[in-house]
Amino acid sequence: MILPTSASDTIMAMSNMPNSKRFPTVTKVEKSTLRRAYKFFREQLSAIPQIRYIAAYLQDDLIHFWTIIPERVREVQRKIYNAELELMDHSPTFSYDFNVIFCPGDFTTLLPSEAQFI
What we know:
GMP Synthetase, Chain A, domain 3, disordered N terminus, two-stranded antiparallel ribbon
């Protein structure tokens, strides 16, 4: 468990219990830990020029990532998947949901409203 250093450094994430009783549990995630994970992933992907954007958001201790590239190229995908594995090794505190979107045009309607570009 990560203990926050101050109230302003904490994101409160609500999650429902598996039995669907709608009884929430609260998990505290330090913002600085989340920022470090985002930064590490962004740095890992910065060497791949085909990447147009990276978007992410945190929900229930699960970081959702969307990596947007204009077309499907297996070699680029392999590089992205390797960066995802590096992130999981580097920041095991979180669980991850990785998505690669192949989109040459406007992709903004494909992302959830909570996602932020990192």
